[in-house]
Every structure is written in C-alpha cells, then in structure tokens.
Amino acid sequence: MEKFYTLIQKHQLFEKDSTVIVGVSGGPDSLALLHLLVKIKEKWNLKLVAAHVDHMFRGVQSEEEMLFVLDFCREHQITCEAKQIDVTAYATKHNLSSQVASRECRYDFFKEVLDKYESSSLALGHHGDDQIETILMRMVRGSTGKALAGIQLKRKFHNGYIIRPLLGYTKEHILTYCRDQQLMPRFDPSNEKTVYTRNRFRKYVLPFLKKENPLVHERFQYFSETLLEDETYLQVLTKEHMNTVLKRKETSAVEIDIDRFKSLPLPLQRRGIQLILNYLYGNIPTSLSSIHIESLLTLLSQDHPSGSLNYPGGLKVIKSYQNCLFTFEQDEVKEYCFDLEIPSVIILPNGYKITCELIKNDSIESIGNKSFLLNPKTLVGPLIVRTREQGDKIKLKGMNGRKKVKDIFIDEKVPLQSRYSWPIVEDGDGNILWLPGLKKSIFEAENGSVDEYVVLHYKEL
C-alpha cells in the first residue's frame, strides 16, 4: 500500500515527529490503519496512541474486543487508551438515538486523549466504500453544501484535525491487507443489520455501483474533493456578500435585508441561508434539509409582505416587509398596562422607554412622532401605556373618523414580531392619544397654546 504513504504526504495529513491518536475499534478498517502506521513509526519518528471505546452494547463480546485491542497494542508496543462507557444510559439521559449517543461519547473520549498526549492528529479508518455510502445517504436526505462532499480527508476537530488516510481504498482492499498481514480483526455483527440506513446502502446499492464500475470509489472521492474545493470558494464569496445583507446578528437571532439578499446570485442565497443556520444552530439538526432552504427562498420571492416558517429545534423564520428574522426567541410578549405618572419614566419590554414631564412653553423643542404634547388643564387622567387590544382605533390628526391601529401598523410596515409589544398611550376616557413613533391623535395640544405642557418622549434605551 505505497499509495497510503503518498496520500499522507500529498495532503499533508500529518508531519514527521508527530503524535498521532488512532481510533481503533478492533475491526478490519481501524486495525489495518494502525498496522500501516506502525510500519512507518520509526522512519517518521511517530508516537502512536490507540484510542478504544467499549460502548457496552454487546456485553462480554464488546469487552472481548477491547481486550483484543489492548493485546494487539502490547504486542506492537503501542500506547493504548481504552474506556468503557454505558452509552445506553447516556442515550436515555439525553434522549438520543443509540447511534448519536455512541458518536458523542466516542468523540468526547477522543478529545480527552488528544489533550492528554498534546496531539493535533486523530486518525480514523473510514475508507472509500464509506465515502460512497455517506455521499449517497446525504443526497437522499437532502443535504446541501459541504455536507454533499461526504467524508473529508482532513478536517478541523478540537485543537487539531481528523485525518482519514484510507479513503482511497475499498473495503475489499482492507480485508485483503488484513489477511495478508494475518491481523485477525474482530467483526461487529450490527454492521450486517439492515435496520440501519447505512447498512442498507452497503448491502443493496454499493454492489450495483461496483458492478458498473469497479473503481467507483475513486470517482466518488474525486467528486468529494472537487466539490469541496468549489464549495470553499463559494463560501468565501458568500461571506463577503452577506456582510452587506445582515441588519442584526445576535446569539439567538439574525435579521437580513430581503431586497439586498435577493440581489445576490441564487447559489450565494442558498449558501447565505446555510451560513445563518450554521451560526444559529451550532450543530445543524439532521432533520433540516434542502427542502427548508428552498421553502424560505420561495417565501422571500413572493409579493406578500409577511409570512413565517417553523424550522426544527424551535427556530422560527419571520418575513415582514423588507426584513427577514431568524430567531429562537419564541417567547410571546406578555400584555402590559402601566399607569403613567406625571412626572415619571416607564421602561418598556421592547427596549424603549417613555418619559413624562411638565415643561414650560419656552423650553419645548421641535416635536415629531416620538414626542407628544398634552394640556394639563384639559387632560383626563390617568394616562395609561398598554399593548394593543382587538379593535383598537385612533382619531388621527387631520383625518375624519377613526382608523384601526392594525391598519396603521400595516401602513407603517411595522414588523409582525414588533406589533404585539408596541406601546399605546390612552387617557382616562379610553381615547387612544398616541402611537409612539408612528401616529398622533387629534387630542394633542397645539404648541404655544398654553404656558405649560405635559410632554411625553419615546426613546430607545
């Protein structure tokens, strides 16, 4: 397997004089990988550490596999870190499937070993057949972007990299190597159960592809590497353009300008959405697919000014006029009703405040929609600041009759998520006096008509 060493050097998987942690289950793939690395151990001055996890799924059988790995390492003078983990208990505690729980426990252990030996390289035994299965599974599931490239030869992990030197080889290559070297690996019977998706691809799809092209693993590997190169370039472009689209970026919420977003080429739009989802989720749920991205693109392209989508994990995407908000902040704004004393300051749940004070006529500055004047002699108290109610109407300045507050929100393009917390000021007779920042009623006093005013101000905190 001269190609094995050439691949390591070509892709700079690790350097000479390195400490390499090798994930070893005792199966043919990981055992062959460890054996191949042992062959260059002295020449490359490598320190090898085998890391084995007994998931305790199969009782005595899995424990025997752990003992086999320990014996193999002793025979070849390799340091071995082995750990038994009750994955079933972990899965139950965290409400996870056995496969997801196994992966989390295993990779957490790998991180511990990497730290203990101050290593930046974790070598795993994934091979060319695994690559084919992974790419096909992700295509069928509707994955997008880098995920479609399948298994990477080298990717960042913890404080270093995961490396996979066997991706150029098929399972048959590895089994032949094990027979030639008399390695006697162990076989996990669960790999034959068709209850698992991967095993069904392995049993029913892979043989057909190999029959069509015995070197199909090389074609899939080429597809993976070139797709990853293209995707990396497009990701750089997307990040550059998304900086002009973002309006707000917080821990649990991102807001974008829809018009600017729609001006981007469609490939960058898709990747822009993916960047936002990666940022908000951290780890993308497996239930999220290309269908969700296409649904959002459809929503943003429609003429209707508002709409929303519910994504997995409690993420909500809300379109409102020219803004699109991605948010986990699902808590409904509670209704509020405050008495507004003269003078006083009220802190509002929407991040604003309303101040109320008595001011002499000669001290009043220009008045816009964020301020409101009242004549203290004709004011009917108490002043109330509250959230909107069904059927709210206001008598607007310069307009006959009354207008629905709901229609004003629509006309002023107030985002849907802001309407429920928007303050409304009314007097003791129940007249709506003012929609702060938006509209005033006919009940506002004329500037200069009296010596003293009650002045209300609407300001951001």
Automatic annotation (TrEMBL):
Lysidine-tRNA(Ile) synthetase C-terminal domain ranges (all copies): 383-456
UniProt binding sites for ATP: 25-30
Xref: SMART domains: TilS_C
Listed EC numbers: 6.3.4.19
InterPro entries from the UniProt entry: Lysidine-tRNA-synth_C (IPR012796), Rossmann-like_a/b/a_fold (IPR014729), TilS/TtcA_N (IPR011063), tRNA_Ile_lys_synt (IPR012094), tRNA_Ile_lys_synt_N (IPR012795), tRNA_Ile_lys_synt_subst-bd (IPR015262)
Domain observations: The N-terminal region contains the highly conserved SGGXDS motif, predicted to be a P-loop motif involved in ATP binding.
GO MF entry, a single one: ATP binding
Primary location group: cytoplasm
Protein name according to UniProt: tRNA(Ile)-lysidine synthase
GO annotations of cellular component type: cytoplasm
Keyword check for ATP-binding: yes
Catalytic activity entry: cytidine(34) in tRNA(Ile2) + L-lysine + ATP = lysidine(34) in tRNA(Ile2) + AMP + diphosphate + H(+)
